[in-house]
Amino acid sequence: MNTTYAAIMCFLLVPVPVLAGTHTLMGLATYITGERTFSATIMLDDITVGYYNSETKIYVARGNYTNEDDVIDPNDLRSVSENLLVHFIERSHHLRPDNNTEIESHEVHQVMVLCEQSDNKLGQIISKTAYRGSTFNELCFFDGKFTYQVFSNYTQPEIKHNLEMSKLRHEKLYYPACIKTLKNYLKKRETQLNRKVKPRVRLIQKANSDSGGFRVSCLATGFYPRHINLTLFRDGQPVADHEITGGDLLPNADGTYQMRKSMEIRAADKHRYTCSATHLSLDNKLDVTLESDPSELFKSVILSVLIVLALVLAFGIGAIMYKCRKRQGDSFRSGYSAASTSKEQVETAT
Fold first, then answer.
1. What is the pTM of this model?
2. Domain topology for 200-296
3. What dotted CATH number matches 2-193?
4. Residues 140-172: pLDDT tens digits?
C-alpha cells in the first residue's frame, strides 16, 4: 500500500544521532485503522534487531544474534504493546473527521520512540507521532523535564486530553523499558556494533555525451560503521560544495554502506583530482588519485576508435581484393581448360 510505505519512509529518514560512545534504541510502530493490531520494528543504532506484531504477540529477533530470548522482558513488551494499541485507537478516534462515521481502512498512524545512552550515561527519550505520512507532534523527556512540539492542526482538539497521559506513559513505562532493553542489547550485540569494515574507494571518470566533458565520481562502498568523510580535491584543494552532487549515505544488502560524490569537468580540464576517505576502520586517510589528463583520455578514446575503423576498413579492402583475385584465377583456369579441349578435338578429327 503506497500510503503505508510513504508513512514508514517518513520515520525511517529521521536522522539518528549515533556518535562515538552514543547508542540508541528505536522502535517504529505502525497501525492501520480498522485492523486493531500494529506491527513494530526495533533498531539498535542502525541495525534491525527485531520485529513484533501485536496480533501474534511474538517477538522475532533479526540479524546476527545468539541466545537473545531474554533481551526484551515479556512483561515490558506486553505493557508497551497494550498501551500503544490504546494510544492508536484513541488517536484515530480524535483524528476522525466529524462528518465521517466510518474509519477508512487505509489510514495509517505511526509512533517512533527513541532512547539513547551516551558514554554510559542515560540520555533522552524522544517520541514522534505521524498521521497519513506526516509528523504532527514530538515529545521529549530528559532529566525529569518534558518538551512538547506540535507541527499540525490535527492535534489541537486532543492536546489537553492526552498530553498529561502521554507524559505519564513516557516517564513511567516507555523510558524505563527502552533504557533497559537498550542496555541488554548493548551486551548481546557488542561484537556486531563494534565491527569495523574498511571502505573500498574508487575514483571513476566517464565521458558525458551531453556536455562533451567528463563526470568524475568518488565511490566508497562496503564500509561499517556508517560515518565516513569523503572529499574530492582539485590540485590539493577541496572542491567547492556547489560543484558536488550526490553524497547520500545508502545501505548495502550485507549491512554495510556506500557513498558517492560526483562532479562535472570539461574535456580540456588538466587539473589533478584526488578522492580522500576518512573512516574509523582506517589508521590513516585513504587517497585515490586520478592521474590521467581528461583531454588526453579523450584523445586516446578517439585514437582507439580510429584504429578500429582503420582495421575494419583494411580488412574489408583485403577481403574484396582476395575475392577479385580468386575470380580472376578461376577465369584463367576455365579458359585454359577450354583451349585444351578445343586442341584435343582438332587432333582427334585429324
1. 0.63
2. Immunoglobulin-like (2.60.40)
3. 3.30.500.10
4. 999 889 998 887 665 455 555 678 888 888 888
